[in-house]
Amino acid sequence: MKYKSVIVTKRGGPEVLQIIENDLREPAAGEARIQVLSVGVCQDDVAARIGNRPFLPKIPFVPGYTILGVVNAVGAGVTEIAVGDRVAALTTIGGYAEYIYLAVEKLVQAPDTLDPAEAVTLILNYLVAYQILHRSVQVKPGDKVLIIGASGGVGTAFLQLGKLAGLKMYGLASASKHKALAEYEAIPIDYHTQDFVEVIRKAEPGGLDFVFNGMGEEYLGRSMAVLRRGGTLLHYGAPQSLSNFLLFLVKLIWFNLLPNGKTVKGYGSHMVDIQLLREDWIELFKLLEEGKIKPIIMAKFPILEAAKANKLLESGQVIGNIVLLAPELM
Question: Which of 100, 99, 103, 70 is nearest to 84 (CA)?
Answer without folding.
Answer: 70
